[in-house]
From TrEMBL:
SUPFAM superfamilies named among the record's database cross-references: lambda repressor-like DNA-binding domains, Periplasmic binding protein-like I
Domain HTH lacI-type as annotated: residue spans: 10-64
Keywords (A to Z) from UniProt: DNA-binding, Repressor, Transcription, Transcription regulation
PANTHER family: HTH-TYPE TRANSCRIPTIONAL REPRESSOR PURR-RELATED, LACI-RELATED TRANSCRIPTIONAL REPRESSOR
Gene3D superfamilies in alphabetical order: 3.40.50.2300, lambda repressor-like DNA-binding domains (1.10.260.40)
Pfam families listed in its UniProt record: LacI, Peripla_BP_3
Keyword Repeat in record: no
Record protein name field: Ribose operon repressor
Highest taxon listed in the record's lineage: Bacteria
Any one GO molecular function term: transcription cis-regulatory region binding
Length: 352
């Protein structure tokens, strides 16, 4: 056997020689061909590892028509929720031997369109996209399989999509607030241009109407889905006349954490003076003081399911349906329990 130069990249011939098989057998074994015995496949894989051989995915892609790359376009990589989505997508893609290109649109339709053009030029096999605009004009020109995620995906019923069950999540949050004695919480929502805001507010209204309560009494403040957006919205709520304890249900955890900062800025205490419920379940909520009680969306699971749906699209076996994933309550310390406190106050007043 001729000794291989250290400066030369290992080839499939080196693998075949070390495994004692033909070049074609080595290639078929590494490609996952079904007509190779397990013993031979194992021998070839060990030989490839021993000589440091890596498959030329570009050449493989040229032959198969696949690049082995997927795209992911999310609205805000700085938001830990979307980072969790990206992590789930990356993990699932890696298990299938695929690579993931991640882009953040920063809620900008023009940036989103630029990222989509980049993905087309990169010849990815498909992409997962959270569309940030009402009209996804590039869809017909996208030219590749895709799966949508996020609330905006509902605008496109003919495209497979994965997202949180917002109605279930909002009801879960409101039921928990009511169980704690917070019957009419104020709402901190996103911009009016976002479908997520409309879905959240619709779920709130339906929940109240079903219980013969008037949703019109709820105070509502809008803001960007950021810490500063929640902080400013909370400042406006605190400036409004009110009687008794204030409870707030924020549309995401970043806004909820900003609201907690505004409470401290005003010299008030959470949850003694103001109760706050978040929505997302980002890790930083656990480290706030007090810990943020929140409705946790399954970000990592959404990423994984979206990649699985994209593989179905790539293999031409899509179901074109919307997958709604349930959310769960994370109980921490940011909600006062008025259902317990109120009777104690009444009893105390009677003794005086």
């Amino acid at each position: 056997m001729v000794e291989r130069s250290r400066s030369r990249r290992p080839t499939i011939i080196d693998v075949a020689e070390r495994a004692g098989v033909s070049k074609s057998t080595a290639a078929r074994a590494l490609a996952g061909s079904s007509n190779i015995t397990d013993e031979t496949r194992e021998r070839v894989v060990k030989a490839a590892a021993a000589v440091g051989y890596e498959r030329n995915h570009l050449a493989v892609g040229m032959r198969s028509g696949r690049s082995g790359m997927l795209g992911l376009v999310i609205p805000d990589i700085a938001n830990p929720f979307w980072a969790e989505v990206a992590r789930g997508a990356q993990d699932r893609a890696a298990r299938a031997g695929a690579s993931l290109l991640v882009f953040s649109s920063d809620w900008d339709p023009e940036a989103e369109a630029t990222h989509l053009r980049t993905l087309r030029r990169a010849r990815v096999d498909g992409a997962i996209v959270n569309p940030v605009s009402d009209s996804f004009d590039d869809l017909d020109r996208f030219g590749m399989p895709c799966v949508f995620i996020g609330s905006s995906a509902e605008r496109y019923p003919d495209i497979s999509s994965v997202g949180s069950d917002i109605t279930q999540a909002v009801r879960l949050g409101l039921d928990h607030l009511m169980s704690k004695g917070h019957v009419a919480p104020a709402l901190i929502l996103g911009p009016k241009s976002r479908l997520a805001r409309a879905r959240f507010l619709r779920a709130v209204h339906e929940h109240f109407v079903e219980r013969d309560l008037d949703p019109g009494v709820l105070a509502v403040e809008d803001g960007e889905y950021t810490v500063e957006g929640g902080r400013e919205a909370m400042r406006r709520l605190l400036a409004q006349p009110r009687v008794g304890h204030l409870a707030v249900f924020a549309a995401n955890d970043m806004m909820a954490l900003g609201a907690m900062m505004a409470v401290r800025d005003a010299g008030l205490d959470c949850p003694r003076d103001v109760s706050i419920l978040g929505f997302d379940g980002i890790p930083s909520g656990e480290f706030a003081w007090p810990g943020l009680t929140t409705i946790a969306k399954p970000g990592r699971d959404i990423g994984e399911r979206a990649v699985e749906g994209l593989f179905d699209e790539i293999e031409h076996r899509p179901e074109h349906r919307r997958i709604y994933m349930p959310c769960r309550l994370l109980e921490r310390g940011s909600l006062a329990d008025l259902s317990v406190a109120a009777p104690q106050r009444i009893a105390g007043a009677g003794r005086n």
